[in-house]
Amino acid sequence: MSHISISAGFIPLVDAAPLIIAKEMGFAEEEGLKLELRSAPSWSTLRDMLAFGQIQAAQMLSPVPIAASMGLMNGIPPLSAVMVMSVNGTVFGVSPKMSELLHEQGFGFDFKDAQAAAAALAQLPRPLRIGVPFALSMHYELIAFWLSSCGLVEGEDFTISAVPPPLMAQAVRNGDLDAYCVGEPWGSVTVDTVGGALLLPGSEIWSAAPEKVLALRQDWAEENPEAVARLMRAVWRACDWLGDEGRRMMASELLSAKGYLDVGPDLIDRSFTGRLTINESGDTRQIDNFVRFHGSDSPFPWKSQAAWIGERISQRLGLDTDTAMSAAQEAFRSDWYRENLSEMGISMPRSSSKLEGATPEPVEASGTGSSLILERNVFFDGKKYDPAGKSA
Amino acid sequence: MADTLTIVIVEHDKDRAIAIVDSLRETGDHDIHVLAEVSGLARSVMRLMPDIVLIDVANPSRDSIEQLALASGPLERPVALFVDRSDAQMTKTAIEAGVSAYVVDGLQNDRIKPVMDAAIARFQMFQRMRTELETTKRALEDRKTIERAKGVLTKHRGISEDEAYTLLRKTAMDQGKRVVDVARALVTASELLP
Q1: How much is the average pLDDT of B141-156?
Q2: Which end of chain A is least crowded, N or C, by CB within 10 Å?
């Protein structure tokens, strides 16, 4: 089998792990790929590298291919999300000043109750200025969904602006931000360097949020089916490998290397173990499900999840919701996922769309092969989301 | 003059900023602003209501500006900034040269092009300078490594420096490697031995 060369781009984050592991643990090699990884300085540049052919694949914020499909980014060709590479993994935190005000209110920092956290935030000076890494990100959609569902109004009670993660801590220190939602290790960095306090993991807003996807340019993927299949198999195997708890230490070591995340492995460990230090005093909280790479339903690009994202974006930008939802679903290629991974013996869900927020505990469901497990999937408000009938 | 454009350059390196401004001045009597700040960038850009924003693709602050292109896009026009849509090839060339451009909606291509050509040329020059600098630096480091490897050989085998170098070169050729790679391996190995 002759090797196919692929360049893939990533942002130095814990959830770049599947690409890094696919290369470092030899999964790419075994699938007949010569995988070159390139670190990108920003999401917009990573997207452009993909759009203009400098790389063929990228770790991408799940809303980006959806926004491209919705025509929100001029000059960017259609991008395809062929697989979800990570679920959850973000944290919401506040500046030292806001943390002090919350303490004065008697807020308990239980790191769990999203309703109580929103109620406490509503008492703070407004508007609460919140930083997220990118305007098209799960961070943005989760925060806007959470706070607006709790009765806060975007633009009046809170504002959301894009701040690159490496600069987030500095923006907090400068007093430009009151709060932030960011992927690891940057939330922990904010705690360690400027005394930020973590309030909530993203998983308490939606416990099954598709965070990063494996994105390809649609036309390139159509012309290179064999390369796509090999890449998907390699990344899927890397996700599966990451699911074993015993490999966390090794994964942290590999990710901490200079060409990758270039931070101490202990900082990366916090995400893998779900044991986060939430404030300067060193208080820790244990979160199950903090970031998930594997699982029988996690990597599947669910059309219903794409629809949720498309609907959220369309509502906040004042666009037609039906058009947005159908464009969004086109970007999530569950058909390619089935086609390319079935032969690995992975049991596939019978439908590519499901009722979101409907499994408070993991449940067994019938699949194309053996049964598969649907992981815990709930929204903080307990509501369910049915893309066919909208929010139930 | 009607042809005057408001251009914002986001660049924290003063020398580079001056070089970019100089090359853009040659394309017309533009109103050029340089922003170096890191936080509050989107706000500052918006206040200036630029026709074109230029920023290094390696600058992480690009993501802050990108929000302007999106948030105001579908709803409001006046400050709408867009990734250049007029010419995909030009965008590609620009990105390869290391500069990204945001151009206000509706601006004619013939007004954008001279500015972009000048910016691209300038950034290509930056890139060449950076490559040259890196090449020089690497050559220097390589030479140091080879000198150290020669030192190891002269000490342990009692041969002259010239003989040491010949030996390194022969080994490299036999193994299909570069001299510096053999030298580095030797230096590393010698550090492990007593």
Answers
A1: 92
A2: N
Please state, in angstroms and as integers, the Cα–Cα distance from residue B35 to each residue in A2, A83, B13, B82, B152, following that order: 49, 39, 10, 19, 52
DSSP H stretches of helix in A174-300: 186-194, 218-223, 225-242, 248-255, 265-273
Question: A41 vs B38: CB contact, 8 Å cut-off?
Answer: no
A95 is written with which tokens?
Answer: 């500046």
Mutation for testing the B interface, residue in A45, A52, A95 having most B CBs under 10 Å: A45
Whether A114 and A205 have beta carbons less than 8 Å apart is answered as yes
The domain made up of B134-192 is a member of CATH 1.10.599.10: no
Residues of chain A with pLDDT under 50: 391-392
Q: Would you state the pLDDT for residue A24?
A: 96
Q: Is the ipTM of this complex over 0.90?
A: no
What pLDDT, on a 0 to 100 scale, did the predictor assign at position B1?
44
CB–CB contact A42 B95 (8 Å): no
Q: How far is CA A363 from CA A146, A293, A299, in A?
A: 25, 18, 16
pLDDT of the residue at A245: 85
Give this prediction's pTM.
Answer: 0.88
Class of domain B6-131: alpha beta
User: Could you tell me which residues are beta bridge partners of residue A158?
Assistant: A128, A154
DSSP symbol at A346:
P
| Residue B73 touches chain A, beta carbons under 8 Å | yes
Please list every residue in chain B whose beta carbon sits closer than 8 Å to the beta carbon of residue A314: none
User: Which domains does chain A show, CATH number per domain?
Assistant: 4-87+209-259+293-355 (3.40.190.10), 90-208 (3.40.190.10)
Contacts of B22 (CB under 8 A, 6+ apart): none
Q: Please give the distance of CA A89 from its chain centroid, rounded to a whole number.
A: 6
Contact between residue A275 and residue A326 where contact means Cβ atoms under 8 Å apart: no
- The 3 state secondary structure assigned to A211-244 is EEEEEEEHHHHHHCHHHHHHHHHHHHHHHHHHCC
